[in-house]
Amino acid sequence: MTPALESVHPVLMSSDVTASIAFYGLLGFRATFQDQPVAPSYAALTRDAVTLHLQWHADAQRSGDHDRPVYRFVCSQVDDLYEEFLIRGGTRENDPAASPFAKPADTPWGTREFHLRDPDGNGLQFYRSL
Fold first, then answer.
1. Alpha carbons within 13 A on the beta-carbon side of 18
2. Is residue 86 part of a domain?
3. Could you report the average pLDDT of every consecutive run of 10 residues in the chain (130 residues)?
4. Does any domain span residue 56?
């Protein structure tokens, strides 16, 4: 039998894990693990079948020439999810620093998607195939 991958749990850099937990709460995630009840430096967050991990990193570790990955989430109801995030305060309409795909749109590469960044600049993209 060939070994099978079951899931992936990305670890996102965070300058303030408590603030990141609050932000991801606006996106409907809930903390399922914290290494400390107050001022955690590591946490796991879950929404539906998705789990993200957050780990504290010093400013020097998050700046400079480090490549910042973007996390893409498959979602069948992209427009509804965007509206949910707007209502919860997890994204804002008309953010001047936002991506060209800050609002749901059809892309030239055959998806419908929208993008946002968390407080630490981690890219989050929510999409479905057309």
1. 5
2. yes
3. 92 96 98 97 97 90 68 96 95 77 95 94 94
4. yes
Residue showing tokens 């749109």: 105
CATH label of the domain that carries residue 43: 3.10.180.10
pLDDT for res 96: 66
Domain contains 111: yes
Q: What is the pTM of this model?
A: 0.91
Domain that holds residue 105: 11-60+68-129
- Do the strands 123-129 and 105-106 form a parallel or antiparallel pair, or are they unpaired? unpaired
User: What pLDDT, on the 0 to 100 scale, is given for residue 16?
Assistant: 96
Cα separation of 116 and 24, whole Å? 12
Q: What pLDDT, on the 0 to 100 scale, is given for residue 62?
A: 61
Looking up tokens 């509804």 gives 80
DSSP 90-130: SS-TT-TTS-TTSS-EE-TTSEEEEEEE-TT--EEEEEEE-
Instruction: Please tell me the distance from the alpha carbon of residue 100 to that of residue 106, in angstroms, as a whole number.
Output: 11
- How many domains does the chain contain in total? 1
pLDDT at 121: 87
